[in-house]
Specification:
Chain lengths: 630, 136
């Protein structure tokens, strides 16, 4: 009893915490009033407003971003088209349409080009819906026939010839429907197993009182052997792409496709045993009534059959689309095109120079920040070895010819967390469409090692052409991760004590009210703001402020609406207005560099009381022989 | 005594989990001690109408969720199913071990996607990216 009472007490103590989980994530403070003033021109007063918002409050650079997205898509389209040509198609779109047709899933004509374009633009996100919107010839025909069948009221029809004709129409409809069902399942064995077999068996087994075994003997037999059937299914699935596949898959589907579940009559589903005993002797029926009953028994709801068939076609077509895009992504023409256009040697040269310079700036910061000579030396040495993620043109030996004679990337067993390694094994090529960058510490998996590295995804590489300062801020942020409190512990050189005061400053109510889980990103932003201060101080004074505004474009891309603030306030990145105005805009060195007078009025000034700019200046940088002793 | 209380707590939590139906889809990704879980949940709105919600939960972060249509939910389940089959039955012969990349689970099947299976890893990467975009 005492135990029970105590356990209840503990539960009571814990329960409010559980219920409080949701409100706990909602920020209890408003966004700075100044950050709400859109398009305020003065970067010294409202850096977020100046950098990220138009005068009407809309997000800045939206139009430019739209143009960039189109350009990016065009490049991916060209890459896929090149691969499709190697496969003998006119382009990627033509290839997909022909693939679907040859799989027995011809699209409805005329094809809606806008939907088709969208399907290839964001394949994995929208493929199901887009394919559904494109529609299929067979489904359109199915709907028409179903409509005409439903229009006939056979119970009111007494003419035997008419009833016979209608019966034949219904029978033909279901014969065609079954053929089409088998054909669509043939193209998608995983879907057939999951949706048709496993799903139906689950319903059958859990609702045995509604679907008695006696009425569903075929289903009962299949469900009893489901494990063996799955082994057979996996064998058929492995044969995909071989000459035998269609025959094997069709035989398999024909053998195991299930009839509709038959439900016991309503009175039998209670506590009564099934089947119920016959209550009356059979009655001799007239020919028309017999035909009516025959039609009744099979007609059911034809339109419903078309809806279900449409879902099957959509799923089969989605599988074909995604498999086709996987094939195109791995093909040599795609890989060559994307590496040649995104990872150019010219771009690499300029970016590597830039990364080297930014890394040297961050090292300058470390020299000022870390007093312990041993620790400082270790960090500086490690910074010299941080790699910059890049995909060089792959040699011919990285490809092998597939069954159609097209060279495609070898699917070897390389173990790696390196996203550039799997960039082409994702048919949606999302690595090339996403806006992101990351830092990874040295990571070992078995025999494979991924060196310490920063990676800019292609969208940032492209932004570098238009706005190098924006990418500078991002590179500095990623390099900053290396010395952020938690990551520095992973890297064997904890900087918790060095950043303690700064983090306390950011936690302050007058600053960004930093959450505990935001210290990594906050310190990375801080490092980036110091690097920007140094970089901007090299520009003519009159252009520094506008350069700062454009340097924050990368951060603005992550700014959500005020509505999303409540969700974002506790994520690992502080909310964009807080990052831009509260970290960058309140950094005293950065303010000084761009000519802002005094501290930020809105956010507490948070920075390091060190002469960082002098230390960052490469001209003052110590050579390697003396580093770590300064 | 404290042990008994903790056991009781665990038992009560386990029991409450056991009551809920399994999610039709769950994707779990773990890296650098950060866990990302995407989960599709279904609720019967009426006798025939199912309501689907996609949730995303990361370590130390607020849960995000959006409502999605039945056809979208079906698409997600099917894609997860394709990844499971690709990983289970199309593993390259050269892959002797499995370095965990992500766990994908549907109502009937589950798999641990291995980095050694590049095609499944790539597809899972694209899938998580799409789930991430949906739930943002």
């Amino acid at each position: 009893m005492t135990v029970l009472r105590l356990s209840l007490a503990v539960l009571f103590i814990f329960t409010p915490k559980i219920y409080a989980a949701e409100p706990c994530y909602i920020c209890n403070f408003p966004i700075s009033e100044l950050a709400k003033k859109p398009g305020k021109a003065d970067a010294c007063e409202d850096l977020f407003g100046a950098s990220c918002l138009n005068p009407d409050g809309s997000t800045k650079n939206k139009e430019q971003e739209k143009i960039r997205i189109l350009k990016n898509f065009e490049n991916i389209k060209n890459a896929r088209d090149a691969a499709a040509k190697a496969y003998g198609y006119k382009d990627a779109r033509d290839g997909l349409q022909k693939k679907l047709k040859s799989a027995g899933l011809p699209l409805k004509e005329p094809v809606d080009e806008a939907v088709f374009t969208n399907l290839l633009k964001e394949p994995s996100a929208n493929s199901g819906q887009d394919i559904g919107r494109l529609g299929f010839d067979d489904i359109e025909q199915c709907n028409k026939t179903a409509e005409s069948l439903s229009a006939v009221n056979h119970m009111a029809e007494k003419n035997v010839t008419a009833l016979k004709a209608h019966l034949k129409q219904v029978q033909d409809f279901y014969t065609t429907h079954r053929k089409q069902l088998i054909s669509s399942f043939t193209q998608d064995i995983p879907g057939f197993f999951s949706r048709e077999l496993a799903n139906k068996c689950s319903i059958f087994k859990t609702n045995f009182q509604y679907y008695p075994k006696e009425l569903n003997p075929e289903i009962a037999k299949t469900c009893a052997n489901l494990t063996d059937i799955k082994i057979q299914a996996s064998k058929v699935y492995r044969a995909e792409g071989t000459a035998d596949y269609n025959r094997l898959a069709q035989d398999f589907v024909k053998q195991h496709i299930m009839p509709d579940l038959k439900q016991a009559p309503a009175e039998a589903t209670g506590s009564q045993a099934y089947p119920p005993q016959p209550t009356a002797a059979p009655v001799q029926l007239s020919e028309d009534t017999a035909l009516q009953n025959q039609i009744n028994a099979i007609k059911g709801y034809p339109s419903g059959k078309c809806i279900a068939l449409g879902q099957n076609y959509t799923e089969a077509a989605r599988k074909i689309t995604n498999d086709y895009l996987d094939t195109l992504a791995m093909a040599k023409p795609t890989v060559d095109h994307l590496t040649a256009t995104v990872y150019t040697s010219e771009r690499k040269k300029r970016l590597e120079t830039s990364v080297k310079e930014i890394s040297s700036n961050v090292q300058g910061l470390v020299r000022s920040l870390v007093k312990d000579p041993q620790k400082r030396g270790k960090i500086l040495d490690q910074y010299d070895r941080v790699e910059f993620g890049w995909i060089d043109k792959l040699p011919d030996s990285a490809f092998e010819k597939n069954k159609q004679g097209i060279p495609e990337l070898k699917v070897d067993s390389a173990t790696s967390f390196d996203p550039t390694q799997s960039a082409f094994s994702d048919g949606s090529l999302s690595f090339f469409t996403n806006y992101n960058a990351f830092y990874n510490p040295r990571t070992q998996f078995g025999d494979s090692v991924l060196n310490e590295r920063i990676t800019m995804m292609p969208r940032f590489l492209e932004l570098f052409e238009e706005n190098p300062l924006a990418v500078t801020a991002v590179i500095a942020h990623e390099l900053g991760h290396k010395i952020a409190p938690q990551m520095s512990t992973v890297n064997g050189h904890s900087t918790k004590s060095e950043f303690a005061k700064l983090l306390a400053c950011y936690k302050d109510n007058k600053s960004i009210k930093m959450e505990d889980n935001q210290s990594e990103e906050t310190i990375s932003d801080y490092v980036s703001s110091e690097v920007l201060a140094h970089q901007l101080s090299k520009l003519p004074k009159e252009s520094r402020k506008s350069a700062l505004v454009s340097a924050l474009e990368g951060l603005c891309n992550f700014a959500g609406s005020e509505d999303s603030f409540h969700f974002n306030c506790k994520t690992s990145h502080p909310f964009a207005p807080l990052r831009v105005s509260g970290i960058y805009g309140a950094n005293p060195n950065l303010r000084k560099a761009v000519g802002c007078e005094g501290d930020s009025k809105e956010y507490k000034s948070c920075g390091m009381n060190l002469s960082i700019l002098d230390k960052l200046n490469p001209e003052n940088a110590v050579d390697k022989g003396t580093k770590g002793t300064q | 005594m404290i042990k008994i209380i903790l056991i009781l707590l665990v038992v009560s939590c386990t029991a409450s989990f056991a009551k809920s139906a399994p999610a039709p889809l769950e994707v779990r990704f773990e890296k650098n001690k950060q866990v990302h879980i995407y989960r599709l949940e279904q609720k019967m709105e009426s006798k025939k109408l199912k309501k689907f919600t996609l949730t995303f939960k990361a370590t130390n972060k607020a849960q995000k969720k959006i409502s999605i249509s039945a056809s979208q939910a079906q698409s997600l389940i099917s894609e997860a199913n394709q990844i499971i089959w690709k990983n289970e039955y199309r593993r390259p012969a050269s892959a002797k071990s499995c370095t965990a990349y992500a766990n994908v689970k549907t109502a009937f099947e589950k798999t641990q996607v291995c980095l050694e299976n590049k095609m499944a890893t790539g597809r899972a990467f694209g899938f998580m990216n799409m789930l991430g975009n949906l739930v943002q």
